[in-house]
């Protein structure tokens, strides 16, 4: 089963809790705190892998989680970090945000990866909070939950030549004749229900990849037939091979229909070199018809997918065209990308309808890692907010004793002292 779209939810592993522990040994008075830190949660990555050809695994496994970090223990034993979760996807997978479908990653190379969700930070044990004035802290941090994100994945098959044609133009027969691909071939429309990818072996150890999509009919750009759903799979191709049946009522009109549907679907096809191959030369009357029609095409090729006539020369021409495009891409000057640095405030404070809201990575993380069942931990959070200047910022914009302050998912009360 071929699946080229999937909606996936990913959650980073939760960080392990820090440990509240004290050294207790005979003849060792006031041993002091020795609670270890919790391990960090595992991240979740999308990784491009050529062994995969479909998003089928993600279709039926919609929620992926990183491994949680191990909790800290006494005797300064720190918890182990959680293992990263690797989600293998086919080459050519595009990662989009689920809310606005904006593209944030395009995994086209073997091994390229995208960090989909970060694991939570492990909580610090009480040994981390010992100071000269507080020698026996009675609290430890809880592990931070992992990030939770949702993505839309879309697969665009990576090929060098894209086959374009009406249903029953002989595209599947052509692909089966030139490669080891074995698409279904039958004498009825829409035999091909999903894209097929074939690798064509040439002399001198050269190869050429060809993508075949379901036949395009008039109105495909408006959603008719099957071609519209799979046109994205030939957007990445370097060359478009128009395969037209010489037995069509008007092959020149067929060419216009195909070109019109491509133009309506995407502007990207306007820049793609086009090669025209008139198929089914094994039928005698088509030989004569080709002589009359070839003026209406730009350097057309006469071929037969059934007998192999003209195919070798066509493949060599396709290879030369693709190779020339590769050389031009390699010779094109590569712009120097400069890293962009943007200042991010440690926190922001604003008035909202029910009180005040504090945002910022540091502030939100501090709240998420506080154990609110422990009074010492809450007092430590109060001191931390005071040191960061959050309490003064709240006072400046009019916060009063007892007002609600929202930080992340938590609702707190404002107490200036």
Describe the structure.
Helix content is 22%, strand content 22%. By secondary structure, it is an alpha/beta fold. It folds into three domains: 1-155, Distorted Sandwich (Spo0b-associated Gtp-binding Protein, Chain: A); 161-326, P-loop containing nucleotide triphosphate hydrolases (Rossmann fold), CATH 3.40.50.300; 348-413, GMP Synthetase, Chain A, domain 3 (2-Layer Sandwich), CATH 3.30.300. The strands form four sheets. A six-stranded mixed β-sheet has the order 10-11-9-12-13-14, with helices on both faces. A five-stranded mixed β-sheet has the order 3-1-8-5-6. Strands 15-16-17-18 form a four-stranded mixed β-sheet. The radius of gyration is 31 Å and the shape is elongated. The relative contact order is 0.11. The mean pLDDT is 85.
Quick structural summary:
The protein has about 425 residues and is α/β, with parallel strands linked by helices. The protein is built from 9 helices and 18 strands.
Low-confidence stretches: none
Order of helices and strands: EEHEEEEEEEHEEHEHEHEHEEHHHEE
Measured as a percent range, the helix fraction is 10-25%
Number of strands: 18
CATH architecture descriptor text of the largest domain:
3-Layer(aba) Sandwich
CATH fold-type name of the largest domain:
Rossmann fold
Residue share in β-strands = 15-25%
Order of the strands making up the biggest sheet: 10-11-9-12-13-14
Structurally, how many domains make up the residues? Answer: 3
For this structure, what is the CATH class of the largest domain? Alpha Beta
Shape type: elongated
Distance between the termini: 63 Å
Structural class: alpha/beta
Tally of contiguous helical segments: 9
Mean pLDDT: 85
CATH superfamily of the largest domain: P-loop containing nucleotide triphosphate hydrolases
The biggest beta sheet is recorded as: 6 strands, mixed
């Amino acid at each position: 089963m071929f699946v080229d779209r999937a909606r996936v939810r990913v959650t980073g592993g939760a960080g392990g809790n820090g440990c509240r522990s004290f050294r207790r040994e005979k003849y060792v008075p006031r041993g002091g705190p020795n609670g270890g830190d919790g391990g960090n949660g595992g991240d979740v990555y999308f990784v491009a892998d050529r062994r995969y050809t479909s998003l089928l695994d993600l279709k039926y496994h919609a929620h992926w989680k990183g491994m949680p970090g191990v909790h800290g223990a006494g005797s300064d034993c720190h918890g182990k970090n959680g293992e990263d979760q690797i989600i293998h996807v086919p080459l050519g997978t595009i990662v989009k945000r689920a809310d606005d479908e904006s593209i944030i990653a395009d995994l086209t190379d073997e091994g390229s990866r995208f960090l989909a969700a970060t694991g939570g930070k492990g909580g610090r044990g009480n040994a981390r909070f010992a100071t000269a004035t507080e020698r026996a802290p009675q609290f430890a941090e809880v592990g931070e939950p992992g990030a939770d994100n949702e993505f839309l994945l879309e697969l665009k098959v990576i090929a060098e030549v894209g086959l374009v044609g009406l249903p029953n133009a002989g595209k599947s027969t052509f692909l089966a004749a030139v490669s080891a691909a074995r698409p279904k071939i039958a004498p009825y429309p829409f035999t091909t229900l999903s894209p097929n990818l074939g690798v064509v072996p040439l002399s001198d150890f050269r190869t050429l990849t060809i993508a075949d999509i379901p036949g395009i009919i008039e109105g495909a750009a408006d959603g008719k037939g099957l071609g519209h759903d799979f046109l994205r799979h030939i957007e990445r191709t370097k060359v478009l091979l128009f395969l037209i049946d010489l037995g069509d009522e008007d092959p020149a009109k067929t060419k216009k229909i195909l070109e019109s549907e491509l133009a309506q679907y995407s502007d990207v096809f306007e820049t793609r070199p086009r090669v025209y191959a008139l198929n089914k030369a094994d039928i005698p009357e088509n030989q004569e018809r080709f002589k009359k029609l070839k003026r209406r095409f730009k350097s057309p090729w006469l071929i037969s997918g059934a007998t192999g006539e003209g195919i070798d020369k066509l493949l060599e021409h396709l290879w030369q065209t693709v190779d020339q495009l590769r050389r031009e891409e390699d010779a094109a000057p590569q712009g120097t990308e400069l890293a962009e640095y943007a200042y991010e405030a440690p926190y922001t404070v604003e008035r909202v309808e029910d009180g005040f809201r504090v945002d910022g990575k540091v502030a939100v993380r501090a709240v998420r890692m506080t154990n609110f069942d422990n009074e010492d931990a809450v007092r430590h959070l109060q001191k931390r907010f005071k040191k960061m200047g959050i309490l003064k910022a709240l006072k400046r914009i009019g916060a009063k004793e007892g007002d609600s302050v929202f930080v992340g998912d938590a609702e707190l009360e404002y107490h200036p002292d």
